[in-house]
Automatic annotation (TrEMBL):
Family statement: Belongs to the TPP enzyme family.
Taxonomic superkingdom: Bacteria
UniProt domain Thiamine pyrophosphate enzyme TPP-binding: residue ranges: 412-562
Annotated stretches, region: Disordered: 590-610
Residue span(s) of domain Thiamine pyrophosphate enzyme N-terminal TPP-binding: 41-128
Lineage: Bacteria, Pseudomonadati, Pseudomonadota, Alphaproteobacteria, Hyphomicrobiales
A Pfam family per the record: TPP_enzyme_M
SUPFAM superfamilies, per the entry: DHS-like NAD/FAD-binding domain, Thiamin diphosphate-binding fold (THDP-binding)
Name of the coding gene: iolD
Name this protein carries in UniProt: 3D-(3,5/4)-trihydroxycyclohexane-1,2-dione acylhydrolase (Decyclizing)
Keywords, ordered alphabetically: Thiamine pyrophosphate
Source organism: Pseudovibrio japonicus
PANTHER family named in the record: 3D-(3,5_4)-TRIHYDROXYCYCLOHEXANE-1,2-DIONE HYDROLASE, THIAMINE PYROPHOSPHATE ENZYMES
Domain Thiamine pyrophosphate enzyme central: start-end pairs: 217-350
């Protein structure tokens, strides 16, 4: 057997560079790295010599780097991914939040945190957290519950099994998610005689499981028996590259489509069968049809509570759920009829079996009414410089965008408004992280999207609260020449949660800056801050000025930030649905007691286990 002597870090880097997509691209498109004593001498040295085959990118925050890597994978429909390496200690734990985000959203990312010495000779080393009862524990054990595969590399040759397992998880339609290989820092530098064949270029394939014949027959019978079916399209439609098949199925069988946050843009916004968003942040059209539907065909969605209105949205007593999903875990939720398969393959099989069957569902009137409400909500305000709503800002950004624009957002009130109001012309034009609803994802995520889609204009919409959580990768985007446009809506606090606080009977408390404890009023100059990180920036005072600034931003060659003050209270009244947020049973506030009564009434609509 022919061998080559390499350190464990050098072997890891060489192996990653050899993993190719069917199109011939490197599956691991690059490695994000912040070096410290736990990885600079090992992985740092190995990456230095591999810059031509596996580029290294430097960020400013480990969580931000991981967000960028995850966004890259999402924008690539999971066909490509990135790795992220940190030192031990805080560098590693900074990535745990991002790992959870990737886990919830089923997105591939390879995390390579440094770890303690496998020999334990110098214990405790700098940044080592000691467990008084378990000598095998390090802080990297916090990755275990948020990783789809976890391994601690304590010998170089363990990579011979760990790396193929990692690739299998990262490319699997069911198991896809974060992989953590905790790299003991002394092992990174230790040499081993590796089989040369281990580094042979390998083409990865993305499995498309076909449906079981019995499940398919049951699904076809359920669809044929339905009088008012509807489709809920999730992120799995995108990851399966099944948007054309979704469109063909809907048209062939006259089944209207609603979209989750991850599924939005699966159909063009102006398609006659596209009812828009569904659930808590849903359009009035989609939710009206969902309430009456007797069969919900869920395609590639895990049916989280924002999609189902906390399982109170589907009100037809005869309703059934058909779950077309690659994961059996998702297919069996709420006594659904399972159709465990790839979305593209499953839709093709259903279309073939259904032949000329068509549904009688008609959502045209609901759709027309909704589009009218949408246009009204996003129209430019009349008369002066009153604080605009989020919806009016979205309208201005929409008017400045074209079919090749990708809008990026994550948490707070903006995702709800965008889910309802943003119009997407083609797949991938809408990039929201809402599975984990992680504040701080937006700017780093926008950078990752731009790297995956360099020809797309990437517009990041972010609130002031989320911007303050994490903004450092704006400087990274400038440094790397990866231009993004940031539209920062300043409503002076956490406006979304303030509205929720009020809706559940609470008083304004600790959400808006003016309602939080302070001895001096907050006076943050966001435009100056963005400018200090190298972006071109400006503050505008009206929707009209925002439109003009966006034209300047589009013409700019580097990242551009436009700040606008907004009203924290209004949200789009049309559409939407109840969401289960428990209200206290006992309170001295009459508003809370009244909200509790409404909450108890709403609970009666939940259909749990049905």
């Amino acid at each position: 057997m022919s061998t080559i002597r390499l350190t464990a870090a050098q072997a890891l880097v060489r192996y990653l560079a050899a993993q190719k997509t069917p199109e011939g691209d490197s599956f691991i498109a690059g490695v994000w790295a912040i070096f410290g004593h736990g990885n600079v001498a090992g992985l740092g040295e190995a990456l230095y010599h591999a810059q031509d085959t596996l580029p290294t990118y430097r960020g400013h925050n480990e969580q931000g780097m991981a967000h960028a890597a995850i966004a890259y994978a999402k924008a690539s429909n999971r066909r490509r991914a990135m790795a992220v390496t940190s030192s031990i200690g805080p560098g590693a734990t900074n990535m745990v939040t991002a790992a959870a985000l990737a886990h919830v959203n089923r997105l591939p990312v390879l995390l390579l945190p440094g770890d303690v010495f496998s020999t334990r000779a110098p214990d405790p080393v700098l940044q080592q957290v000691e467990d008084f009862q378990d000598g095998t524990v390090s802080v990297n054990d916090t990755f275990r519950p948020v990783s789809r595969y976890f391994d601690r590399i304590q010998r170089p040759e363990q990579l011979l099994t760990a790396l193929p397992r990692a690739m299998a998880v990262l490319t699997d339609p069911v198991e896809c998610g974060p992989v953590t290989l905790a790299m003991c820092q002394d092992v990174q530098a230790e040499a081993y005689d590796w089989p040369v064949s281990f580094f042979k270029e390998r083409t990865l394939h993305f499995r498309r499981p076909a449906p079981d014949a019995d499940e398919l027959a049951t699904a076809v019978a359920a669809i044929q028996a339905a009088k008012k079916p509807m489709i809920i399209a999730g992120g799995g439609v995108h990851y399966s590259l099944a948007t054309d098949e979704l469109k063909s199925f809907a048209e062939a069988h006259n089944v209207p489509v609603a979209e989750t946050q991850a599924g939005k843009s699966a159909l063009p916004w102006d398609h006659e069968l596209n009812l828009g968003s569904v659930g808590v942040t849903g359009s009035s059209a989609a939710n009206a049809v969902a309430e009456e539907a007797d069969l919900i065909i869920a395609v590639g969605t895990r049916l989280q509570d924002f999609t189902t209105g906390s399982w109170a949205l589907f009100k037809n007593p005869e309703r059934r759920i058909l779950q077309l999903n690659a994961a059996s875990y998702d297919s069996g939720k709420h006594n659904a009829l399972p159709l465990v398969c790839d979305a593209r393959v499953g839709l093709q099989a259903l279309t073939q079996k259904l032949g000329g069957w068509k549904a009688a569902t008609d959502g045209a009137s609901f759709r027309a009414e909704w589009l009218s409400a949408l246009d009204k909500a996003t129209a430019a305000p009349e008369g002066g410089n009153e604080l605009p709503t989020d919806a009016q800002v979205i309208g201005a950004v929409q008017r400045a965008s074209d079919a090749d624009t990708t809008v990026v957002c994550a948490a707070g009130g903006l995702p709800g408004e965008l889910h309802k109001l943003w119009k997407t012309d083609k797949p991938g034009g809408y990039h929201l992280e809402y599975g984990y609803s992680c504040m701080g994802y937006e700017i780093a995520g926008g950078l990752g999207v731009k790297m995956a889609k360099p020809d797309s204009e990437v517009i990041v919409m972010v609130g002031d609260g989320s911007y303050m959580m994490m903004n450092s990768e704006l400087a990274t985007s400038v440094m790397m020449g990866q231009k993004i446009i940031v539209v920062l809506l300043d409503n002076r606090g956490f406006g979304c949660i303030n509205r929720l606080q009020m809706a559940t009977g609470g008083d304004n408390f600790n959400n808006l800056l003016d309602d939080a404890y302070h001895t001096e009023p907050s006076q943050i100059d966001f435009a100056a801050h963005a400018g200090a990180m190298g972006a071109t920036s400006e503050h505008v005072s009206s929707i009209e000025e925002l439109g003009e600034a966006l034209e300047r931003a589009k013409a700019s060659s580097k990242s551009y930030c436009v700040v606008i003050d907004t009203d924290p209270l209004p949200s789009t009244e049309a559409g939407g649905h109840w969401w289960d947020v428990a209200v206290p049973e006992v309170s001295s506030r009459k508003e809370v007691n009244e909200a509790r009564k409404g909450y108890e009434n709403a609970l009666a609509d939940q259909r749990l286990g049905d």
